Amino acid sequence: MPPTEPILKQALKDDWELLAPVIQAHYSLAPFTNEEIRLEGKMHEVSHSRFAKLLIPFARVVGALIPYHGSNVPVRVVNHSRSDRTGYFWQRTFFFPGSKPFQFPSTMLCTGDREITEYVRFGFGIRLKLSVRNGGLIESDHGYVVKVGRATIPLPMNLLMGWASIQEMPVSESEFDMKMVLAHPLFGHMFAYNGRFALVRE
After folding, report:
1. Which of 3, 28, 108, 146 can pair with 88 through a Cys bridge, CB separation 3.0 to 4.6 Å?
2. What residues contact 104, with CB distance under 8 A and at least 6 apart?
3. Which residues make beta-bridge pairs with 138?
């Protein structure tokens, strides 16, 4: 039988219990169900460098990264599970003033011990090593891949894109702060965003 525990719990194993309740709640969806979690929040800052701007056409084709700059950008996140397959599914929608809503879908799978891979279009993905700090979730770049059939092929894209780091830190029982930085050792920060999100409880 395929694992039916939440994807993040599969990867973190016993460290799952170290996560703050709000972070556990964010990732509590079990595979092979039809469930949904909604978040509302605001990105305090969304930015990318001039060099990174050259990469945006490719990033838009594969459905990765955010092509706009902005401050205090409203964001709606819908996470869901599916009854017919494993995975933790994301639909992020960014509301930049003067632009149509920008959607950023992806799928997260457990791919190893304390490791998940987040896939966008055409089988492109980023492997992320997981750890827990002060109840928060820390995700560290472990390399890019592309999935072709059943094969997962490593890609040397870090040399061009840099390395990503992501963190979600608890603020209260229903809120957390998140931060993503994609940094290159030669070119500095390529992409970055940070904000605060709240679970929408009905």
Report:
1. 108
2. 63, 64, 66, 90, 91, 92, 93, 94
3. 131, 167
- Domain membership of residue 62 (yes or no) is yes
pLDDT tens string 15-61: 999 999 999 999 999 999 999 999 999 999 999 998 888 888 887 78
Q: Does residue 1 sit within a domain?
A: no
pLDDT tens digits along 61-73:
887 888 899 999 9
Residue the block writes with tokens 């599969």 = 10
Euclidean distance between CA atoms 103 and 79, whole angstroms = 13
Tokens 């490791």 belong to: 115
Find out whether 199 and 176 touch, Cβ atoms under 8 Å.
no
CATH assignment at residue 153: 2.40.128
Number of domain units in the chain: 1
Q: State pLDDT tens for residues 161-191.
A: 899 999 999 999 999 999 999 999 998 999 9
Residue type, 121: R
Q: How many CB atoms lie within 10 A of CB 201?
A: 8
- Read off the pTM: 0.93
State both tokens at 177.
């702060």
Structural domain contains residue 175: yes
To the nearest 10°, the Cα dihedral for 180, 200, 59, 145?
A: 70
Structure tokens at 183: 């940094």
- Rounded to an integer, what distance in angstroms lies between the CA atom of residue 1 and that of residue 10? 14
Give the separation between CA 162 and CA 187, rounded to whole angstroms.
8
